[in-house]
Design brief:
Jelly Rolls; transmembrane; Phage tail protein beta-alpha-beta fold; 3 domains; Ferrdict_sens_TM; FecR; transmembrane helix; sigma factor antagonist activity
Length: 352
């Protein structure tokens, strides 16, 4: 039944209109508050979803998760001063430094507690916790290791290797900066990983391979001579944390471009990349800057190329790494037909 407005007095009509207006205003306010609550909850839900995405993107894939040896490498990161030294050094887990002769073998027994160096034996205390040793190789020097599991490692000039004295965990892991050749002892129950900076990892599925990961280089490369390896790289960035993986077969090289964050694989003769472990440097159809980059590390000198010199020409040849620099310069002149001027005081070689 509806009210009859005609029989109401003026005061009652005014009162009724006021109550109706108040009711309408209240209802509008209620609806407005409801909409605000819905918007608030929606915004909160969107924020939670975004936060979840951020967390999930920041989480690294299992293959490239930060391991304890990577954490150790970060915590003991040096400023590169080892490159200024003129001696190979073995830094023990207690921070004691032992000077090593050039190309001397550092050999561990199966327990990792006894080290044979320079015909002398070094004894380390046994520990339940993982102990890490470090080998620092300056420019112009090389080193050779036999790890506790029987894996052989050759370290090139300007390189650093961090490794456990014994492999007592589920995985065998080492951390490399520079260039190393690995001949890994087979153990299917304990996969072997070579970790490097920039979330780069090499999982060993075979045996003999080379990894070059100098900090100053634009690329990180892995070359496989024998066996099988898996290379992985975790992309950087908020929305680009996916992992690139590729498997190499003998004769393949995987090159990671640090800037582009991609990996390219090529097939070529990889034998020259392993020549330095035998005491000579072989290069085949290489551009001059690449040849000079390696000689810079071998002989701790700096090359200056004049603008008139073509940097696109390729060259082939070989050097004995124990040759003196004068002989190397003469070999370069004969190979390239260019003029090399060596300043002994600054150790700079100008190419005209």
């Amino acid at each position: 039944m509806y009210p009859n407005f005609k029989i109401l007095s003026k005061n009652n009509k005014a009162d009724l209109k006021a109550r109706i207006a108040e009711s309408i205003a209240f209802e509008k306010q209620r609806v407005r508050r409801k909409r605000l609550r819905v918007l608030s909850w929606s915004a909160a839900a969107v924020f939670c979803i975004f936060l979840g995405l951020v967390i999930s993107f920041k989480q690294e894939p299992q293959f490239v998760t930060v391991s304890s040896i990577e954490q150790f490498a970060i915590s003991t990161e040096k400023d590169g001063s080892f490159e200024k030294s003129d001696q190979v050094k073995l830094v023990l887990s207690n921070q004691e430094a032992v000077t090593i002769g050039d190309s001397t073998t550092i050999a561990y027994d199966a327990s990792g507690n006894r080290i044979q160096v320079n015909n002398k034996q070094i004894n380390q205390k046994n520990s339940k916790e993982t102990q890490y040793n470090t080998v620092l190789v300056p420019y112009g020097k090389r080193a050779h290791l036999s790890l506790a599991d029987g894996t052989l490692v050759w370290l090139n000039s300007g390189s650093k290797l961090i490794y456990p004295t014994a492999f007592n965990t589920a995985h065998r892991e080492v951390f490399l900066e520079g260039e190393g050749i690995f001949d890994v002892a087979h153990n299917a129950a304990k996969p072997f990983f070579v970790r490097a900076a920039n979330n780069y990892s090499v999982r060993v599925l075979g045996t003999l391979f080379n990894v070059s990961c100098y900090a100053a280089d634009a690329k990180v490369s892995t070359a496989l001579l024998r066996g099988k390896v898996q290379v992985a790289y975790a992309k950087k960035g908020l929305f680009s944390s996916d992992t690139i993986q590729t498997i190499l077969k003998p004769g393949m090289i995987a090159a990671l471009d640090k800037k582009k964050q991609n990996i390219e694989t090529t097939v070529q003769n990889v034998e020259p990349l392993f020549s330095w472990r035998k005491g000579y440097y072989e290069f085949s159809k290489e551009k001059l800057p690449l040849v000079l980059d390696k000689l810079t590390r071998y002989y701790n000198v700096k090359f200056l190329i004049n603008k008139q010199v073509s940097q696109q020409e390729t060259y082939s040849g070989a050097f004995k790494l124990n040759d003196d620099l004068d002989k190397v310069v003469k070999t370069l002149e004969a190979t390239t037909g260019l003029d090399f001027v060596y300043d002994t005081e600054t150790r700079e070689i100008t190419i005209n």
